[in-house]
Write a structure and sequence with these properties.
The chain is mainly alpha-helical and 332 residues long. It has 17 helices and no strands. Helix 3 (52-64) runs antiparallel to helix 4 (69-97) and helix 7 (129-141) packs across helix 14. The longest helix has 29 residues, at 69-97.
């Protein structure tokens, strides 16, 4: 009997190791990979960088062949809605607010650093082609990282995915309101005589391809949305959630926001004040989702109804385990 059981176990192990090309698992990998290769070839051919919406479509194709399509659509609709509506409103806000520019970050920066701008100091002191490319790499991650991180949370930690989605919405829409009422030009526009826009003036020229010019023309229709810096806010928001979930194992992710913060100033895209503003917006959104909304959910039926994922952790556990409050039976 034992030998037969061992043989059966070996057969089951072999089945797990074998990869059936007719299975849904095979197509779940084949179609997204084929799609991403096609997108990659298209982008290389026409010298553009794809937006995050293309990544979402790849995830949807993967989900369709894993019997999770409807759950994917239901769970991702809020995130996609926030993202797309933000992109649409971003351009509209830029058109409305461009005649009401403010110089607060520039004046504050000049006051803090004794009449000198860090972006000019960095470009004059340590300007190197290698740093140009490193800065371009970190700065470009902003266009992909929020969507990829959302997918990781959706697969690994659904409750935190919902919290991240709400925090993402608070952060982006809070910034959108600021862009409307307090539009600020970036250093490369406001101090054009002293600050170089390295991504288009240097990196594109050295590549021989207008990668960043095309990207900015496509995605950055608002030139006066420097404060707060969303390039600084979203990497920090991602880091906060990663460290909250995976603790010390996630500490290396801090390289991401620090790299972006340095790059934003070095590349001439943002003032240090813009970066600090982005950090503040991300931290505030994280605190609201982790502390304020769970507290309000205990008193507000609307939040409990429409955002049940934000309930305090203890109450969620009690709901999942209704017998947890029962006293243990005493021994007779």
């Amino acid at each position: 009997m034992e030998k037969e059981e061992q043989k059966e176990k070996k057969k089951e192990d072999k089945k797990k190791l074998t990869f059936d090309y007719r299975s849904s698992r095979f197509f779940a990998l084949l179609f997204p990979v084929t799609y991403l290769l096609a997108i990659g070839i298209f982008c290389l051919q026409y010298h553009i960088i794809p937006g995050p919406e293309f990544l979402v479509l790849a995830f949807l194709i993967y989900a369709a062949y894993n019997k999770t399509t409807w759950r994917f659509l239901k769970d991702w609709l809020p995130f996609i809605t926030v993202f797309i509506s933000y992109q649409i409103m971003y351009g509209i806000v830029g058109t409305v607010s461009q005649n009401n520019l403010h110089a607060g970050p520039y004046n504050l920066e000049m006051g803090i650093f004794g009449g000198q701008l860090p972006c000019i100091l960095l470009q004059e002191a340590i300007r190197l082609p290698v740093l140009d490319y490193v800065g371009a790499f970190f700065y470009s991650l902003h266009f992909f990282a929020p969507t990829i991180f959302a997918y990781i949370l959706w697969k690994a930690s659904p409750p935190n995915y919902w919290k991240y989605t709400v925090a993402f919405g608070l952060c982006t829409y809070g910034a959108l309101i600021t862009f409307l009422f307090y539009p600020v030009a970036p250093p490369w526009i406001e101090v054009s005589s002293g600050v170089s826009r390295i991504l288009t003036d240097s990196v594109d020229v050295s590549l021989g391809i207008p990668v960043y010019k095309t990207l900015f023309d496509f995605l950055s229709s608002n030139l006066y949305a420097a404060f707060p810096s969303m390039h600084s806010a979203l990497p920090f928001l991602i880091s906060l959630f990663a460290i909250k979930i995976w603790k010390k194992k996630a500490l290396p992710i801090l390289i991401f926001p620090f790299g972006v913060w340095f790059s934003a100033v070095y590349l001439g895209e943002h003032y240090v004040v813009d970066v600090l503003g982005g950090i503040a917006y991300a931290l505030l959104a994280f605190i609201v989702v982790e502390r304020v909304l769970p507290l309000l959910s205990t008193r507000s039926g609307i939040i409990r109804k429409y955002l049940p994922q934000l309930k305090p952790l203890e109450k969620q556990k009690k709901k999942e385990d209704p017998n947890s409050n029962q006293k243990p039976s005493q021994a007779i």
